[in-house]
Every structure is written in structure tokens, then in C-alpha cells.
Amino acid sequence: MLDEDRVPPEGPFDVALTNGLLAIVAAIDPAAVMDKRGFTLPASALLPKAVALGLSINQATLAEGLDLTQPLRHGRADDEWIQLGSRHLTALRELDEINGLEVLQHVGAHRTVDDMMVTLFYEKARAYAERDVRRVKDLLDVMDPEECDECFRRTFVPLGYDDSGGTMTVGLCIACGYQRDDDTAWDMYMAEQWELRWQHE
Fold first, then answer.
1. By C-alpha distance, which of 44, 53, 41 is closest to 99?
2. Are residues 15 and 87 in the same domain?
3. Count: domains in the chain
4. CA–CA dist 169, 149 (Å, integer)
5. 38 — alpha (psi -120 to 50), left (phi > 0) or beta?
6. Does residue 53 sit within a domain?
7. How confident is the model at residue 7 (pLDDT cuts 50, 70, 90)?
8. Where would you tag: which of 65, 66, 183, 185 has the fewest CB atoms within 10 A of its CB?
9. For a pLDDT cut of 70, what percent of the chain falls above it?
10. Do 130 and 63 belong together in one domain?
């Protein structure tokens, strides 16, 4: 999209760089991507952290890309004709070769981001399995993804079964990060049981 000038480049570049850095830095040290208030760090702070962790990135070119995109995104640009160059996009793509990302190969094979994220989730689970299996679910008992209560994507993964064999349990959405806690899961389970009882009376 950036190469074909189909969208303004400053937005996608900034978002892709920030999320990419979050992924590769967190793969080494999850605490390194958070500030003291619990918020994730911006790309400008993640770049030096990535270098300090020994990651091979083109820091100078990526920092230059940020310097170009930030004023444009926030309406402070003195020259609206300043644009990203191919070297900035090349440096951005090279991040995908680092452990923690490696997702670009999947883009063309999936119709939606949700489908791709589910595939990536299973691949990561398989990578941590002690032995190779045809279906990682057979070893790790990973549940089929369901619709998330927050973002409504089919990317919520329950972490077990409830007392009736259903999936009104704690879990995590691998798309938006929503986590269903014990109290919420219990309330949902009880509401479902009351509704089932009412239907059979």
C-alpha cells in the first residue's frame, strides 16, 4: 500500500514501526516495553531499547522516518511535500526478519487480519510445544477461538471448560488483548445457565 501511494504513508509507517518494535523488544524483555504508568512506550523510546538489547536494526533510518512522519501526523509539518523514501520502508520491512515478528509471509495467505492472528497464535503455541504434532490443540488443548466480548472479532481463546463443559471461562483475546477474569466468567456462566433453565420450563 505504501509503495503504491494508496494511503498517506505517515500513518501506516508510524503504526507499523511502533507495533513492530513492541513485538521484537517484548519477545526478549516484556517489561522493557512499558513505562512506569503501565503504558506501552512510543517508537522513539523503543528504538534505543532495541539497539541496547542487541537487535540488528537500522536505527538511524527508522529514527529519520519518525522525524518525517510525526510532524505530518500531528499537523506541525513545515513542508507537507517531505515524504518517506524507499530506504525507510526497507528498514521497516527488515524488522520482520527478527524473532517476535515474522508475519509478512502470512499476509497474502489470509483474507482478514483476524484469520492471520489466529494462525500466528497457533504457530507460537507450536513453537513452545515439546514435541511436533499435526494439531497443536492435541497437545496443548488450545480451545477454538470465539467472538470477543470487546472487539467482536473471532479471536477470543477460552482457557478451559466451565462446570457444564462449556467455555464460559477466563480467557484472552489475541487481537485486542481483552482478558475475561474469574468474576466476569462466573457471571456469564450463571446467566447462561438461567437462560437455559428458563427455555426448558
1. 53
2. yes
3. 3
4. 12
5. left
6. yes
7. very low
8. 183
9. 78
10. no
